[in-house]
Amino acid sequence: MYSCSPNAEFDFSLGSFSLQFHALREIKAGEEIFFSYTDEYVPAADRRKQLEPYGFICICTACSRATPASDKLRQTSASEMRILDARYCTAKEYDQRKNNGMRMIREIILPKVLDFRRRLKEEGLDVMFGPYLRSTLLLHDLHIDLGMLEEPDAKIVAKDLMVWMTMKAGVQGRPLLSENGNTVVTLKVPKL
Questions:
Q1: What would the pLDDT profile of 35-46 be if each residue is shown by its tens digit?
Q2: Residue from 64, 70, 72, 77 nearest 3 by CA
Q3: Overall pTM surpassing 0.85 (yes/no)
Q4: Helical segments of the chain, H only
Q5: Burial class of residue 134 in the structure, from the number of CB atoms within 10 Å of its CB (0-12 exposed, 13-18 middle, 19+ buried)
């Protein structure tokens, strides 16, 4: 089924001459599989335009409930994540220099990253690539910095990372990004 908040992606495998579907997040038993033909990080009007050649109008939750705020989140999530990364680095450096018990990270950065991740999840962008994956990795670093690995949020992040680790073989070809946004490695899975 089609959705602008997919839980899977597909790719054509020349080797097997077949479409292959890969999970983008944990898919529960009985949950319908959704994929997207469009760029999920553009406003609903742009996604509608991208779907015109396919001859249908999307009525998924992301489109039917689209607002200027949700469109803005989709458009700006990558740049917002880069800003959060930069603020984290600056705050960590400041906290270490001042030896203040990671106060800026604890009081300013952690709540902002948690809020950003929550908004992505509410928008249906809780897939393990792009801004959601980056925010998950950043939260993991924050919890380590703060010694908060037993906190409920830290356990959810750790669970998401475990899911991602088990799925990443299926996310064949999706690039992993370094802190500056350059491609560092592209996952390749050997044929079994």
A1: 898 999 999 999
A2: 64
A3: no
A4: 44-51, 61-64, 68-98, 103-104, 110-122, 130-146, 152-167
A5: buried
Asked whether 143 and 82 are in contact (CB, 8 A), the reply is no
**Amino acid at the residue 118:** R
Long-range contacts: 132-136, Cβ < 8 Å, 24+? 133/164, 134/81, 134/85, 134/177, 135/81, 135/84, 136/160, 136/161, 136/164
The per-residue pLDDT for range 114-158, each reduced to its tens digit, is: 999 999 999 999 988 899 999 999 999 999 999 999 999 999 998
Q: For the chain, how many residues are written?
A: 192
H or E element at residue 10: strand 8-13
